[in-house]
């Protein structure tokens, strides 16, 4: 998201559904537009990246990226994000006043930089601006113009549904989690995140006795021979 020095979030943003199994080490190219043309030279813009758990729509963490040359019409920023293994909690030592509708959070890539992470329906530097929301009831309203859709919806206000992952026609078996491909690429493609002991494109296979090994297609195409060595370990108290 593009923000200014008053933490105002502008409607020019991009959303990506990141799946570690599918997208690890993948590069994403994101384009953000300034809100005014010509650009307001008195404003100090930067980029804020928020991540949420897509399944539960709960907040996870944030990064802050400075735009180095504010006077240029175009800037290119390259960064590598390391997603923390646990949800980031509010900072008790923070001196920002976030009121009753927000909590103070620290950017994980900056040791002493804080911001107010606002509750749904509120925005502003201190989360004191209430705004109306036109997002669907099962989505998360970040600002009056930004909606975070649930897993089975998409669109500006999350009113469009993804039929490939509908509950009545779930493409994944055995309670697997259906994740549809980016609707800008393909509205009918999907992938399944399987529960423990299940595997396959639709989680249709179950592991009974043994170990299921799944190799990335890109790895298989790069090598001609793959050697896998498995060692069976026993508890010495049971096997003498």
From TrEMBL:
Any idea what this protein is called? EGF-like domain-containing protein
Q: Which UniProt keywords apply?
A: Disulfide bond, EGF-like domain, Repeat
Q: Does the keyword Transferase apply?
A: no
What CDD domains does UniProt report for this protein, alphabetically?
A: EGF_CA
Q: Domain of life of the organism in this record?
A: Eukaryota
Which terms in the GO cellular component ontology are assigned? neuron projection
The chain's disulfide connectivity reads 94-104, 118-127, 194-203
Recorded GO molecular functions are: cell adhesion molecule binding; protein heterodimerization activity; protein homodimerization activity
Q: Which organism is it from?
A: Adineta steineri
**EGF-like domain ranges (all copies):** 90-128, 161-204
Q: Name one GO biological process term.
A: heterophilic cell-cell adhesion via plasma membrane cell adhesion molecules
């Amino acid at each position: 998201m593009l923000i200014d020095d008053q933490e105002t979030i502008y409607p020019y943003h991009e959303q990506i559904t990141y799946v570690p199994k599918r997208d690890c080490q993948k590069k994403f190219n994101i384009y953000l537009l300034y809100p005014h043309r010509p650009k307001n030279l008195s404003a100090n813009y930067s980029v804020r990246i928020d991540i949420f758990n897509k399944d539960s729509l709960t907040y996870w963490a944030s990064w802050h990226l400075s735009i180095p040359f504010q006077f240029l019409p175009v800037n290119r920023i390259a960064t590598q994000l390391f997603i923390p293994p646990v949800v980031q909690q509010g900072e008790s030592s923070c001196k920002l006043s976030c009121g009753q509708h927000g909590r103070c959070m620290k950017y994980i890539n900056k040791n002493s930089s804080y911001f107010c992470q606002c509750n749904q329906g509120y925005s502003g530097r201190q989360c004191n601006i209430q705004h109306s929301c036109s997002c669907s009831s099962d989505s998360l309203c970040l600002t009056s113009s930004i909606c975070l859709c649930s897993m089975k919806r998409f669109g500006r206000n999350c009113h469009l549904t993804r039929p490939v992952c509908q509950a009545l026609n779930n493409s994944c078996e055995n309670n697997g989690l259906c994740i549809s491909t980016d609707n800008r690429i393909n509205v009918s493609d999907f992938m399944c995140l399987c529960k423990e002991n299940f595997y396959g494109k639709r989680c249709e296979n179950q592991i009974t006795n043994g170990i299921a090994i799944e190799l990335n297609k890109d790895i298989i195409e790069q090598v001609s021979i793959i050697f896998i060595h498995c060692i069976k370990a026993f508890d010495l108290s049971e096997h003498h």
